[in-house]
Amino acid sequence: MITYQVNEGSSAKLTGILKDEAGNLLGSAGVASLTAELYDKNTDTSIFGVKDILNVNGGVLDSVGNFAYTFTPSDNAIVTAGVRGYERHILLVEWSYDGGSKAGKQEFEIAVKNLSHVP
Questions:
Q1: Percent residues over pLDDT 90 in the chain
Q2: Of 35, 50, 70, 105, most Cβ neighbours within 10 A?
Q3: Domains of the chain (ranges plus CATH)?
């Protein structure tokens, strides 16, 4: 699992590369769907449910397979009272290709630094 560190309540950008089962790059022309879901790792609390990120809703996929998702400040909120240090969120990115008959998934761990006690 790939881990990113972000500050609570801050915008951030996550990047990756989409590949098929053989390791070939999947650009926007070959991808039928690209979705993301964000939740708290320890409590399974949903931060946002499954949403389309194929060149909408903060997601970008280029013609050669590079993708990016831009988090909003509300995406990087601390959702569990009393958390000190870091809260772990999971961004699950899923895609389908080959006319929707094949699929891939990747989890990204987002370590959100709790800044509520920083003056």
A1: 91
A2: 35
A3: 2-113 (2.60.40.1220)
